[in-house]
Design a protein that fits this description.
- The complex is a heterodimer of chains A (235) and B (416).
- Chain A is mainly α.
- Chain A has one domain: Cytochrome Bc1 Complex, Chain D, domain 2 (Orthogonal Bundle).
- Chain A is 46% helix and 0% strand.
- In chain A, helix 4 packs across helix 5, helix 4 packs across helix 6 (93-104) and helix 7 packs across helix 11 (197-209).
- The longest helix of chain A has 19 residues, at 2-20.
- In chain A, 41% of the residues are buried.
- With 416 residues, chain B is mainly alpha-helical.
- Chain B folds into 3 domains: 45-162, no CATH class; 176-285, no CATH class; 300-412, Cytochrome c-like domain (Cytochrome Bc1 Complex, Chain D, domain 2), CATH 1.10.760.
- Chain B has 18 helices and 5 strands.
- In chain B, the strands form 2 sheets. A 3-stranded antiparallel β-sheet of chain B has the order 1-2-3, with no helix packed on it. Chain B has a two-stranded antiparallel ribbon with strand order 4-5.
- At the A-B interface, helix 1, helix 3, helix 5 and helix 6 of A face helix 1, helix 2 and helix 11 of B.
């Protein structure tokens, strides 16, 4: 433990002096987070607003704790996307936390909802699942965790608005097949495990048609109780 | 974020650490344990013996080899599944001679061919440290090696060809500092395991030590540490070398790929004296004269077309960080002009750098490194070949152009 503490102390010293020594010289890159995350922005957008690729998610404005959990999961290989697993492999926790804080504090406008390619019936099924769930099949309503306005809750629950249908169904699929896992108990795995292929299509499509809410910010921690425990959301 | 809190914590940690250090003086066992921990860092045991997010030194990390997958061992002091029943003699035998306590042969994926140079005193210190860490009860995973490599007797043949047992012998004609550097590089650092050509038998011969080679399965080229045309550090200043080893970045270039792992888990923890000794030794083994520049493998008109497309791609995608003249903003945005690591005959590394991007490792000296985006999804094979050809030949660089086929082949290289 001794050397571990010493290493941590040293890391924090450097971390502190790094921010403090803002002395900027012409032949140094800007001493900002924006310059440090330039490796991320071709895929996620300059302010984390997302790009035209439907599988590249928006990061801006999501709860910092949620984003940090994702970065830890990518670094540890619990969530897989090789280009990102590779980039993060040797970055220390405090730096990942700083990246998460950076994207959480950006607020570019949410995109316009995309016109849907599925039928009215399918959308209605999606809305039902999201807002009421299906007690007979042990599917809780998505709003019971993601919030009545679907804007998420600090620190660990993301909002579900402003995401594209292709991305949402890929994520639900990843949970079903075990290539995405979250901190245990992994409540999303339980939820996704009860969904059929058709449910996934429906709920992803309906979510993508929702207009941007007036206030997209995640609600404060403890605003409502979850139907069951989630490792990502300490209580 | 909680920076203020971190600083407050830091003061506390620094204080308690100092206090604990005080308590320790005079206590001999804990001195040995602390030294053993330091030496285990120098040997980078954790890179192989700790799985991703796994318990420290509990093993089970898969190591892909051309012969199948090997799983590393649990080296925690658990008596049942680890090395809790081992004696210091048993442990020295593994490090020095590559054998289990019962005499069984150990696969050379465990770098005993380098560790054989480690002194008995250092081996004992590492053993004392390993005895002090929390035991983890976790059975070793059986290797998944193809026939006939699953037969450990084959290791005998390998040993005859490639293994010479023996502790490091200092060169009396050199300074103590040089010898210390040599001991660390050739022994615990096991730098030769990657930086030497690997032949079809998975062996490296003594006479080719540090001559550079492609790492099997990973598709990264570990450059020669003796040729100044590759990673030979003959004309680097000692400060640039120590910066590179300790922080991962320097005015001359940065580390990436498997070398980022080495700096992250091992080299950043070495103290200033040891780092300087290694730098001195590495500078010393670089051969004075460099071989003549290689000639281009591509026909001339084709390569000049490539290079002019390359300049267009470069000015649009790369110049904002690496500068229009390849000058960069060192150390964070590395210079590409006069950068040995992109001029080498093997173009594997610069091609992969463009495809995969990367961050240097976060280290004590550089905790928030700057990064480079991956261009795999943004540039075609032809554009990748063009921009790599351009940076290898512009600004007086003496590399050769590369083909779109080479770029294409590396798209499927593993990313871990």
């Amino acid at each position: 433990m001794f050397a571990r503490d010493a290493a941590l102390a040293a890391l924090l010293v450097c971390f502190a002096s790094f921010d403090g020594a803002a002395a900027q010289t012409a032949n140094q890159p800007p001493d900002t987070m924006a310059a440090r995350v330039e490796a991320c922005t071709p895929c996620h957008g300059n302010k984390g607003e997302g790009t035209s690729d439907v599988y590249f998610p928006r990061l801006a404005g999501k709860p910092a704790g949620y984003l940090y959990n994702q970065l830890l999961a990518f670094r540890g290989g619990r969530r897989k996307y090789p280009p990102m697993n590779y980039l993060l492999e040797f970055l220390p926790d405090p730096y990942l936390e700083a990246m998460a804080e950076y994207f959480a504090s950006e607020h570019p406008p949410l995109p316009q909802p995309a016109p849907s390619e599925v039928s009215k019936d399918v959308l209605a099924q999606g809305e039902l699942l999201a807002t009421s769930g299906d007690a007979n099949r042990s599917i809780p309503a998505c709003v019971s965790c993601h919030g009545p306005g679907l804007t998420g809750m600090q620190p660990g629950i993301p909002g579900l608005l402003g995401l594209r249908a292709a991305y949402v169904s890929a994520q639900l699929g990843a949970w079903r097949y075990g290539t995405r896992t979250a901190k245990s108990p992994d409540c999303m795995q339980l939820v996704a495990g009860h969904l059929t292929e058709a449910d996934v299509t429906a709920v992803a499509a309906w979510l993508a048609t929702r207009p941007a809410p007036a206030n997209p910010a995640p609600v404060p921690k403890g605003t409502y109780a979850l139907p069951f425990g989630c490792g990502s959301q300490p209580n | 974020m909680g920076l203020k809190l971190s600083i407050a914590l830091l003061a506390l940690v620094a204080f308690t650490t100092a206090a604990r250090a005080q308590e320790k003086t005079g206590d001999k066992t804990s001195d040995i344990v602390a030294r053993g921990e330091y030496l285990a860092r120098a040997g980078d045991c954790t890179a192989c013996h700790t799985a991703a997010e796994g318990r420290l030194f509990a093993g089970a990390r898969p190591m892909p080899t051309p012969f199948g997958t090997i799983y590393t061992s649990n080296i925690t002091p658990d008596p049942e599944t680890g090395i809790g029943k081992w004696s210091a003699d048993d442990f020295y035998r593994t490090m020095h001679n590559g054998r289990f306590p019962d005499g069984g042969l150990i696969y050379p994926a465990m770098p005993f061919a380098s560790y054989t140079k480690v002194t008995r005193a250092d081996s004992d210190a590492i053993f004392a440290y390993l005895r002090s860490i929390p035991p983890v009860n976790q059975k070793n995973k059986p290797h998944e090696l193809r026939f006939p490599y699953d037969n450990r007797q084959l290791i005998l043949g390998w040993r005859t060809l490639f293994f010479s047992e023996g502790e490091f012998k200092p060169d009396p004609g050199k300074s103590a500092e040089w010898n210390r550097g040599a001991y660390l590089v050739e022994g615990l650092g096991h730098c030769g395991m990657c930086h030497s050509p690997i032949n079809a038998l998975g062996g490296t011969s003594q006479s080719d030590a540090f001559k550079g080679g492609l790492i099997p399965m990973q598709n990264w080229y570990a450059p020669s540490l003796t040729s100044n045309r590759e990673a030979g550090l003959g004309d680097w200043s000692i400060k640039d070398i120590t910066d590179l080893l300790q922080t991962g970045v320097s005015a001359r270039g940065v580390v990436y790929g498997p070398m980022a792992e080495v700096v992250h888990n091992s080299l950043q923890y070495l103290d200033d004296a040891d780092t300087k000794a290694m730098a001195l030794y590495l500078k010393g083994i670089a051969e004075a004269s460099s071989p003549p520049p290689a000639s281009s493998a591509l026909p001339n008109t084709e390569s000049s077309l490539l290079i002019s497309l390359g300049k267009t791609v470069y000015d649009k995608n790369c110049a904002s960080c690496h500068g229009t003249q390849g000058e960069g903003k060192p150390p964070h945005w590395p210079p590409l002009a006069n950068n040995q690591s992109i001029e080498m005959q093997s173009a594997v590394n610069p091609i992969r750098m463009v495809l995969n991007g990367g961050y240097p490792p976060g280290t004590k000296g550089n905790p928030m490194p700057y990064g480079m985006p991956p261009f795999a999804g943004l540039l075609s094979d032809n554009e990748v070949a063009a921009v790599v050809s351009y940076i290898r030949t512009a600004w007086g660089n003496r590399g050769t152009p590369v083909s779109a086929r080479e770029a294409n082949e590396l798209r499927s290289a593993p990313l871990n």
